[in-house]
Amino acid sequence: MPHPLDATAVRTWCGLALEALGRERERIDAINVYPVADGDTGTNLYLTLESAARAVEAAFDGHASAGTAPALADAVGAMAHGALIGARGNSGTILAQLLRGMSQVLAAAPPGGSGAADALRTALRRAATAAYEAVAHPVEGTVLTVAAAAAGAAETADAKEAAGVARAAHDGARRALAATPGQLAVLRRAGVVDAGGCGLVALLGALADALSGETATAAPVAVRAGGALPEEAAGCPAAVYEAVDAGGPAFEVIYLLEAGDEAVARLRDRLDRLGDSLVVVGGDGLWHVHVHADDAGAAVEAGIEAGRPYRIRITHFGAGPRAKEPAPAARAVVAVVPGAGLAGLCARAGAVPVTVRPGEPPASGELVQAVRQARAREVMLLPNDPELRHTAAAAAEQARAEGVRVALIPTRSAVQGLAALAVHEPGRSFDEDVVAMTAAAGATRYAELAVAEHRSWTMAGVCQAGDVLGLIEGDVAVIAPDLAGAATAVLDRMLSAGGELVTLVLGAGAPAALGERLTAHVRERHLAVDTVVYEGGGHAAPLLIGVE
């Protein structure tokens, strides 16, 4: 029996789609040859939709105490927002834009009848149009083509209910997917259909099932041109297909960005000159940026100039120009960092950064994915936050189950992570590297400055709103009226026990001259102590301090 187009239907859609992508994930990964033969399209789509599903569940939890369900607008809005902030890879970024386009129309859709059917038709067309607009250089034979065909089939379907429209869209998407090898040479040479389009077919099938209340009996989607993927290729990286073009930029750069429309327009132009596979999705001040570039640092810096980037992820496709299937590195480092500046610093040092912002700690799944993206047999995981100890431990355990040797280095601050990264040496034995990095982190005392939001009691006395707090090893030790005063007091306390190197990481709220002022203070008051200053960027604390 058809189900009305309401919040519960959206929740059911998310659950069914997540199950479908979970079943198809490895199969989709195995046929991923465009735009990069890196075998992760299925995984990226699954993780993107998982974030969307979590957001929908949170919307329902928010109404549970009142015994009500959220409105349709709340549910589809949550789904689109969750996909945006959790989008992974090129495919996940496009999926987020498809869902955003649908949500803009479905938010005002009536629950049933021809009104709901017409709204779904319009939503599917809006989704396809928005996806094309988000991609800098659209290519036919991809998920974009499949989305447009689904919208076209929905518009011509003689259906009076939303369930019938969804089923027609699914059928149209299946036909378009089967035709993709004839539209894109790289697919034709590899003998496979488009991986992103395969994921969209699964998503639309789940929508049809959710609205109809029935599971379709259609045959499984053929992922290989002319038939199913041969057994010997199942679960293998798509790069086993020899005909795949190996050229292209070396890095995939992804980040969320808080910025205005004009700044994003300029960012698109700059990133388009830097690399390829550019997709920028979002709106209303929050954007998801995806690009492939040889200069990952320049791609991040472009985001910093445009606004406030965070959750930065940089993945290396292989040594030099993009490889067919990058050989796993012997050892890599994954580091959680609180700002774009630190992310760039860690990336230049060879680490895979996971950028976070205050109040939004990464889930264990995000850390596991970063470990996978490191493409290494051995990984050093730096949580850089005592609150992430259990999350990082769970991620390490899951990665070990997948065959990666992971060491959790007990770093409690980003400055401890920098100290550990400075002594990292892939050429020595794994155990020796663990000992050296752990020792370097443990020998680094850490502190940070924060601004009090309200009057409260602390270990250093009573603070007023607006006071600057100096926290040493997590405890308030100094209360001062300004950043410079708090910083010098904290430095003097920490250096009273000795030290050889001071590391200062300036946040976006720190005055430009603060680094020079503190460096001069250390030089004058504490002999034979060196000082290094780094820019932490947005979302980092006003000042992080490390003393080795």
Characterise the protein shown here.
The strands form 4 sheets. The chain has a 6-stranded mixed sheet, sandwiched between helices. By secondary structure, it is an alpha/beta fold. It folds into 3 domains: 7-233, DhaL domain (Serine Threonine Protein Phosphatase 5, Tetratricopeptide repeat, Alpha Horseshoe), CATH 1.25.40.340; 251-442, Phosphotransferase system, mannose-type IIA component (Rossmann fold, 3-Layer(aba) Sandwich), CATH 3.40.50.510; 446-547, 2-Layer Sandwich (Hypothetical Protein Tm841, Chain: A,domain 3). The radius of gyration is 25 Å and the shape is elongated. The protein has helices spanning 7-30, 41-64, 72-86, 89-106, 113-134, 143-156, 162-179, 185-190, 195-212, 261-274, 296-306, 340-348, 364-374, 389-401, 414-423, 430-442, 483-495, 514-525; strands spanning 251-258, 275-283, 286-293, 308-316, 329-337, 352-355, 376-382, 405-408, 445-451, 456-458, 461-463, 468-472, 475-480, 501-507, 530-537, 543-547.
Strand content: 15-25%
- Model regions low in confidence, pLDDT < 50 over at least 5 residues: 226-246, 319-326
Q: Largest beta sheet, briefly?
A: 6 strands, mixed
Summed over residues and divided by their number, the pLDDT gives a mean of 86
Give the strand line-up of the largest sheet.
13-12-9-16-14-15
Tally of separate helices: 18
CATH H level, superfamily name of the largest domain? DhaL domain
The whole-angstrom Rg is 25 Å
Summarize the amount of helix as a percent range.
40-55%
Question: Which structural class is indicated by helix and strand composition?
Answer: alpha/beta
Number of strands: 16
Using the coordinates above, name the CATH class of the largest domain.
Mainly Alpha
Report the CATH architecture of the largest domain. Answer: Alpha Horseshoe
